[in-house]
Amino acid sequence: MRKILPLTLTGLLALSACQFTSDGDDAGTGVHALNDMKALPLHAYLPDPASTGGQDVGKAQWILARQCMIRLGFSGFRAFDVKSVESTYPVRQGSLVNEDGLGDDSPYGVDDPAVAAEHGYHNGGVNTGAEPREWPADQYTALTGSFESGESHRTHGRPIPEGGCLGSATRKIYGSEPRPMNVGGIKLSGYYSLATELWYQAHKEAGKDPAWKKADRAWSRCMKDKGFHYPDPDKASVDYHWFTTHQASDKEKKTAVADARCKLGTDYIQTAHRVEVRTQNAAIARHKKALEDGRAADQQAIGNARRIIAEQS
User: Fold this and answer.
1) What is the pLDDT of residues 221-251, one digit of tens each?
2) What is the model's pTM?
3) C-alpha–C-alpha distance, residues 246 and 252, integer Å
4) Under the phi-then-psi rule, with left for phi > 0, alpha for psi from -120 to 50, and beta for the rest, what region is 270?
């Protein structure tokens, strides 16, 4: 989520004056548990690729994509092993892949001074996930339906389906794709776009809460006492200086350590979690049927995926 919405999912909260806690105390452990996407209500309506069902969907998607690629004339895919692409996503051969690790997948950013002292805000390598796999340009376009200027939308004399073979496979598993959502000015399509849009809207609403604004001020005062001048944690975590290096500088590490300590000392994340849980629960109540329909469709997709896998056995 923070990769898609780097600012909207990194709002951080605090209430009291800045006080320090030790790095390994129980409060720090509790804060870390709250600083997790899974600790927020809308997470229940987002997919978990690591789950058994999520893995089955991924496997079925590649089974269908393999069949599609063969139909498009890529005969080498007859010997293609679906297991070879587990936990990967396709990238065009020779394209630049962001490997600097800036940012992480937590909703509220750094919360551990020890981790911050080692990685700064470059925490991307801490949480593992899918890895990029390079494909030759012709195979990449056929797989994804992503084209560079001037590239043909046909291959071997056959039209490439919308979204490529992977997109075609996903539609066969999930059905017709729902309407795109506008999330922070980004047109977001996909089968979980409603939950993502609601997450974004709930976060914006939480940011207007008086407690949220008070928390930002408390955190900012704490940082100022340490010699760092940021109005809120978002500004600290996305300081443009951090984007100029692949590894954290000493200045970045010191800033991140102060950031984490101020969060711990001001009950920042506890407040963030409390406010955002309230706004997310309200969003869920307003859109309960649509969200539950999406959850049911996800279970149907998992069933479809397992039938596809069984047919290949």
Assistant:
1) 999 999 999 999 989 999 999 988 888 999 9
2) 0.78
3) 12
4) alpha
Residue 28 banded pLDDT, cuts 50, 70, 90: low
Contacts with 238 (C-beta within 8 Å, 6 or more apart), sequence order: 6, 7, 10
Q: Over 50: is that where the pLDDT of 25 sits? A: no
The rounded distance, in Å, linking the Cα atoms of 304 and 173 is 6
In three-state form (DSSP H/G/I as H, E/B as E, the rest C), the secondary structure along the chain is CCCCCCCCCCCCCCCCCCCCCCCCCHHHHHHHHHCCHHHCHHHHHCCCCCCHHHHHHHHHHHHHHHHHHHHCCCHHHHHCCHHHHCCEEEEECCCCCCCCCCCCCCCCCCCCHHHHHHHCCCCCCCCCCCEEEEECHHHHHHHHCCCCCCCCCEECCEECCCCHHHHHHHHHHHCCCCCCEEECCEEECCCCHHHHHHHHHHHHHHHCCHHHHHHHHHHHHHHHHCCCCCCCHHHHHCCHHHHHCCCCCHHHHHHHHHHHHHHHHCCHHHHHHHHHHHHHHHHHHHCHHHHHHHHHHHHHHHHHHHHHHHHHC
Distance, CA of 261 to CA of 258 (rounded, Å): 5
Q: Which residue has the tokens 């978002």?
A: 234
